[in-house]
Sequence to fold (497 residues):
Amino acid sequence: MSTDAVSPASAPKDHSVEREVRAAIVSFARRRIDAKSFDREGRLPRELITELGELGLFGLTLPESFGGSGLMLREVAPIVAEMASVDRSVATTVGLHLGLGTRGLVLHGTPEQKERYLPRLARGDLIAAFSVTEPTAGSDLSAIRAEGTPRGSHLSVTGSKCFVTNARLAGLFTVLVKTRGLSEGQNGTSLVLLEKGDRGFSIDQEERKLGLRASSTASLSFDEVLLTADRILGPTGQAARVLDPILAVGRMLLAAGCVGTAHRALAETRAHVATRRQFGRTLSQLPVVRSTYGRLASRLEAMQALVDTAAAHEADLERFSLLSMAAKVFASETAFHICDTALQLHGGWGYMEDSGLPMLLRDVRVTRIFEGANEVLLQRLGAAAILKPAALSAPDSEGPLAERLSALLASIRTQGGVALMGQPEVLQRIGRLSVLALASGALTRRSSASTTTEASLMSRCFNQLAATEFDQVIQSEEDDAVAGAAGASLLEGARDS
Ligand SMILES: Cc1cc2nc3c(=O)[nH]c(=O)nc-3n(C[C@H](O)[C@H](O)[C@H](O)COP(=O)(O)OP(=O)(O)OC[C@H]3O[C@@H](n4cnc5c(N)ncnc54)[C@H](O)[C@@H]3O)c2cc1C
Fold:
């Protein structure tokens, strides 16, 4: 057992656990995680997974009664961020297990299912994966084809899934299938638990990816896999109802990872501009570099504040679901922007793999796509802003944009807000305004609790940026109409030719 180990079973439930685990991870990561070599190899060494298990990382979010640490998301988020700052592939592997991979079991598992799987999952002896996406069903999960058909007392599962994180490491897969003909929810979908080694279940080769190269991603095939009834997870035929709280945890941990990546990119940039000399002085002495750095730092601060705000609402399911979507969208876009600008500030040196910047950029790119493409999430946020504004808010975190947003929403509602549900581009714009308002509110609250000049400067800087972006989004309505007409004409032509 590693000397850094934090015994999950004996961990006291207070913030010192988070500090202890974070300290242990930093020390472990320095010695054992070689992100560049894992990236080149395209996989994480099996011994590393064992050691991460010994550290207690795979049990952080699992109940103490099953050998986990029972930490809240606000405690786990900084740990995932810490891991991501060292290696995003490691953070994705662990984060997927802690969130999407196991949350369904924690929320909806029967006592027997929990007893059977959770202790091994907490130790990292069993790694979890979560699989909903199919080749023809990504953003639109209502189009899934994988099906579980009753066969005597069993369920026979046939179909395929793609892009499954942890696929070639995992022993347990939470899988979404159509379950026509089961007692409740005649045309519904259900979650089922598949185990590696189930007859008829195969795992394909690793995908070759732009980034997250050491994180496992592969397709799954099911050829009449026979499952006993105790492999159905949660209410039969009603997976749509239980998916959201599971996805919310995944999005939360993804957003936390983005904080870690952006933090690392900014730290590298700070060190680089402080020493790189051009035109007779360091880059950090150039006014444009200073303002660029100030903007990046204030965006990072807002990202951190929104992630913290979302995590603090874990117990309030509806609010948490919406806030974690907002945090995911904002964190993924902001982290990408920070990594891209960080690379720019490194100049040609930043373009070289050795600088580490290309890997940060490659690894962070997917966060705008997976766990719900941002465009789709923004539309859901826009719809919620119109229909459920109270749920899409963080009480005590109202910033300068919240008032403008609520005035805008009030006027939208009086003009027949429900009619907008059929106008995705409008919903997307409202979703974006909501995200900006939430981020600025979260940062305003955070900075008002601090007495430092830096905190107040960063809050002012971000609020100014957010106000400018807010205006741009409102003004983009006309551009959208013209661009939509141009795109429709061009794409229709492409389809016909
Ligand atoms: C590295 C990686 C790991 C993944 N891991 C998992 C996993 O562990 N489990 C799992 O189940 N899935 C996983 N996924 C799948 C991921 O969640 C999907 O890729 C994602 O939901 C988008 O679906 P899609 O790729 O089919 O894109 P599509 O649905 O085809 O969409 C393509 C693009 O079209 C646009 N778009 C689509 N619909 C709309 C709309 N209504 N309005 C506006 N724009 C729209 C968006 O820009 C979107 O990015 C992973 C994907 C990747 C790349």
Q: What stands out?
A: The first strand starts at residue 128 and ends at 131. Residues 1-13 have pLDDT under 50 and may be disordered.
